[in-house]
């Protein structure tokens, strides 16, 4: 088998329906946004934490504008790499920003896998056992590899079933918890201080991370049915579904637990909220839904990031070695993805994994908006005011998040800075030594490269 991603393009084009794309997008978003990040958002934002999800949805909707405009014109598997390459040309900026996106997606897999492990072990009181959490997270990542290795239709079909289960289950939990607890108890009975405005703004970085799963759709654009129309529709439907679910759950958790209780149980806040509101049955129901949600989230994320890495390799933006493995680039990148995600899941805790992901994603997102604004705005028919607003929103949130983390955990800011610098320096060294310049694939309108 030859090692070029475009050779498989015609086989995979049109393999994902509109509904399947929405299932994958919501699969990634809901897996991270609700079960992994609710507690951390509440820790920063206090009683106003539901507003953080609204702000995150607004910023994400602005951000999605660039991706939709680009994907409508040039739908492609590995779409973000394509966007950056078209905006900046083959070089260090496009390659580095694309790699930051891929790394933030791998980080997301680790984040959701550890959340799966925490919820799965909670009924046995073992969620504080570090090695068991790491082992369970690693097991989920291996399972995600097996599903992805079975092919696109397996991923799409599995994601669709799991998304239907978890969206219905989460909505049922939220409505029942709100009905049982009302709106005047828990976190919403606590006083609100306007001095927390900066922390609320900083929390939006986590909320944006909770919505970034829409990039799963962008990165699979060439494989969606009628991509010129359906990529944009799939992204906006996914964001709309998620904001409704997020707000329902935020209100349910906030009405059942105080902020201190949410923070104490931040890695399993939904399960903690279910017990006082709905009793033991509600607790176990929530754990089951969390397991379904995080499982589908990891599977969808592995699918997207492995294809993005394949695109980067095909465009000669990153080095590649098969290490004696058979098969093509996609199968190799699937292995690399799960190895990196598994390593991160074993070594790091949820808070730092989420913070690193937020830093990497926001920097990459700002580079996308700037590139479209400066170089592609007229070609794709994008409005400068929307692009500038998206860029400014990302910048404000990144600044607030950095300031908050410098006070609470300066080490993670250093890790993020070192990681970003290492990516740019590493890409500069690789590209300067690589005699073959990065490819510049053109799209013929069907999502296939010529």
Q: What does this entry look like structurally?
A:
Helices cover 76% and strands 0% of the residues. The protein has one domain (5-317, 325-433): Up-down Bundle (Amino acid/polyamine transporter I). The protein has 17 helices and no strands. It is globular, with a radius of gyration of 21 Å. Helix 3 packs antiparallel against helix 9, helix 8 (152-181) runs parallel beside helix 11 and helix 13 (269-314) runs antiparallel to helix 14 (329-347). With 450 residues, it is mostly helical. It has helices at residues 9-12, 18-33, 38-45, 49-73, 79-88, 92-121, 130-149, 152-181, 197-211, 214-218, 227-256, 259-264, 269-314, 329-347, 350-380, 384-408, 410-433.
Helix and strand arrangement:
Elements lengths: L8 H4 L5 H16 L4 H8 L3 H25 L5 H10 L3 H30 L8 H20 L2 H30 L15 H15 L2 H5 L8 H30 L2 H6 L4 H46 L14 H19 L2 H31 L3 H25 L1 H24 L17
Helix pairs in contact: 2-8, 2-9, 2-11, 2-13, 3-9, 4-9, 4-11, 4-15, 4-16, 5-6, 5-15, 6-7, 6-13, 6-14, 6-15, 6-17, 7-13, 7-14, 8-11, 8-13, 9-15, 9-16, 11-13, 13-14, 15-16, 15-17, 16-17
Going by CATH, the homologous superfamily would be Amino acid/polyamine transporter I
- CATH fold-type name: Amino acid/polyamine transporter I
pLDDT under 50 segments (min length 5)?
1-11, 440-450
Number of helices: 17
Task: Please identify the structural class as seen in this structure.
Answer: mainly alpha
Q: How many domains, as an integer? A: 1
Radius of gyration: 21 Å
How much strand content do the residues show?
A: under 5%
What is the strand tally?
Answer: 0
Mean pLDDT across the residues is 82
């Amino acid at each position: 088998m030859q090692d070029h991603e475009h050779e498989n393009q015609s086989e995979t084009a049109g393999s994902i329906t509109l509904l399947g794309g929405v299932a994958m997008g919501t699969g990634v978003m809901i897996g991270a946004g609700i079960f992994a990040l609710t507690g951390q958002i509440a820790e920063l934002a206090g009683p106003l934490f539901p507003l953080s999800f609204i702000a995150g949805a607004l910023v994400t909707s602005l951000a999605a504008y660039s991706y939709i405009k680009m994907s409508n014109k040039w739908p492609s598997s590995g779409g973000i790499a394509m966007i950056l390459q078209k905006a900046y040309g083959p070089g260090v900026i496009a390659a580095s920003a694309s790699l930051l996106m891929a790394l933030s997606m791998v980080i997301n897999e680790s984040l959701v896998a550890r959340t799966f492990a925490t919820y799965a072990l909670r009924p046995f009181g073992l969620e504080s056992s570090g090695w068991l959490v790491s082992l369970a997270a690693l097991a989920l990542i291996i399972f995600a590899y097996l599903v992805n290795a079975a092919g696109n239709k397996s991923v799409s079909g599995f994601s669709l079933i799991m998304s239907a289960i978890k969206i219905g289950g989460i909505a049922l939990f939220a409505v029942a918890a709100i009905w049982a607890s009302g709106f005047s108890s828990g976190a919403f009975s606590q006083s609100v201080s306007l001095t927390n405005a900066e922390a609320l703004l900083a929390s939006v970085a986590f909320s944006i991370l909770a919505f970034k799963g829409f990039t799963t759709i962008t990165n699979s654009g060439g494989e969606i049915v009628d991509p010129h129309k359906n990529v944009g529709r799939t992204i906006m439907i996914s964001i709309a579904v998620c904001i409704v679910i997020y707000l329902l759950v935020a209100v349910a958790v906030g009405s059942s637990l105080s902020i201190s209780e949410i923070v104490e149980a931040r890695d399993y806040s939904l399960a903690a909220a279910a017990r006082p509101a709905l009793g033991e049955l509600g607790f176990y129901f929530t754990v089951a839904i969390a397991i379904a949600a995080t499982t589908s989230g990891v599977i969808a994320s592995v699918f997207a990031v492995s294809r993005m890495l394949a695109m980067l390799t095909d465009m000669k933006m990153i080095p590649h070695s098969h290490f004696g493995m058979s098969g093509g680039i996609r199968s190799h990148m699937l292995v690399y993805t799960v190895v990196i995600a598994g390593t991160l899941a074993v070594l790091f805790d949820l808070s730092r994994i989420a913070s690193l992901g937020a830093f990497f994603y926001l920097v990459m997102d700002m580079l996308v908006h700037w590139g479209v604004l400066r170089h592609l705005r007229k070609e794709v028919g994008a409005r400068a005011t929307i692009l500038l607003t998206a860029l400014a929103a990302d910048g404000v949130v990144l600044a607030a998040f950095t300031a908050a983390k410098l006070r609470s955990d300066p080490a993670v800011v250093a890790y993020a800075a070192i990681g970003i610098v290492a990516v740019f320096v590493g890409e500069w060294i690789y590209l300067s030594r690589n005699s073959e310049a990065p490819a510049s694939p053109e799209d013929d309108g069907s999502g296939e490269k010529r």
